Amino acid sequence: MAVREEARRVFCGNFPTWLLLIAVPIGYTLIFGYAYLPGSVNHVPIVIQDADQSSMSRALINMYEDAEKFDIVAQPSEEEDLTAAMEKSEAMAGLAIPKNFARDIKRGDVPHVELFIHSVNNVYGNVITTGAWEINRTYQVAVASKLLEAIGMMPSEAMDATYPIRMGTRIIGNPTVAFGPFVLPILAANGTQIALILTVAPLVVLMLERGTWRQRRFSSALVFGSGCVHGVVAFAAFLVSLGIACAVYDIPMYGAWWQIALIGAGFVFFVIGALSFFGSISPMPVVALQLPIFYIMPGILYSGMAWPDYMMTEGAAFYAALVPITYLAVPLRDLMLTGYAPMFWQDFGILVLGGVITRMLAVTFFHLRQRWTLRAERKTACGEVTA
User: Fold this and answer.
1) How many Cα atoms sit within 13 Å of 84 on the Cβ side?
2) Rounded distance, CA 125 to CA 117, Å?
3) Is residue 44 helix, strand or coil?
4) By CB distance 3.0 to 4.6 Å, which of 55, 137, 153, 234 could disulfide with 157?
5) Cβ-based neighbour number of residue 325 at 10 Å
């Protein structure tokens, strides 16, 4: 009976609850997928100051000009102009080539080229450092090879003498170093929990306000099972969101869908349990909506998605251990990008356990509030009789 009433409210109520449950996670996936569509950061604006004005310094500048990672926006003559352009955010990177750059190379000395990074965004820092290192290494090998060829070495011998070990880079999991595969699945999960906050959070406190529990013999089961229909719809929307991420934005899916579904179901189960708990301690529906925001929403920053958990402070690690998305973010990303999540069953077990514990707490506080309500009614009734 309770499930039928909840289904009626979800699908036939005045407010299209089912539409909200589906639209938020799918909308998150589409909007953020479009934002990360370029895949990786390219065309970083860079200013280059060439104090040497030699053919060798111009060759280095040409390599930056040809690189997809950088766009040269200015070539000032003074270093002060370079730093000024960066301070004004006209450029995110700067390169200062010193005077006597070519002379030092020909003498066998190591010229000092200064790389400037605008640290307003760490993503730029990583891209600039990696891109500049690759260009400078290529330039160094090419110049050294030419110098050795000039003294009589064959080109192949010169290359071996300059760079005796050829080192390749192999990136596992996210070979394109794109941001879409890195964050989009977790943003879909975040959209799911936002949809649940907006729809499920007030359910328990509304049961208390409306006196629904008076009409049910098993109020514990009513609280424990609250939000089950919402959860089924949200879970389906979560899977659809991941399917859209794979189909529309080419996010890889190397893992088994049954594992994705299982960890997603555990996540939804835990989130609804936490929302039921907050509803059981909230004095009114508005508060039931507000409390979970402070608990759940920052979780995406502490989930291990961006900052590794082993680098967190004790306080941050403690908070991360309490939020559902911590046990979804890393295994979901691992499954999708590599096909294997080493902590899958442990994380799934914690999600289920968290959902059970939060529901038990919700039932406990619900019963306490029932007793307080009945006690207050008895006192009121006794006062009226006495009067």
Assistant:
1) 8
2) 6
3) strand
4) 153
5) 28
Helix, strand, coil share of the chain (percent; to 5):
70, 5, 25
The tokens for 40 are 């990786």
169-185 per-position pLDDT tens digit: 444 455 555 666 777 88
Handedness of CA 177, 178, 182, 185 (dihedral sign): negative
Token pair 């328990």: residue? 204
Can you tell me the distance from the alpha carbon of 171 to that of 191, in angstroms, rounded to the nearest whole number?
Answer: 29
User: Residue range 89-113: average pLDDT?
Assistant: 81
Q: What is the pLDDT of residue 142?
A: 73
Amino acid at 376: A
Tokens 């690189």 correspond to what residue? 67
HEC profile for 240-300?
HHHHHHHHHHCCCCCCCHHHHHHHHHHHHHHHHHHHHHHHHHCCCHHHHHHHHHHHHHHHH
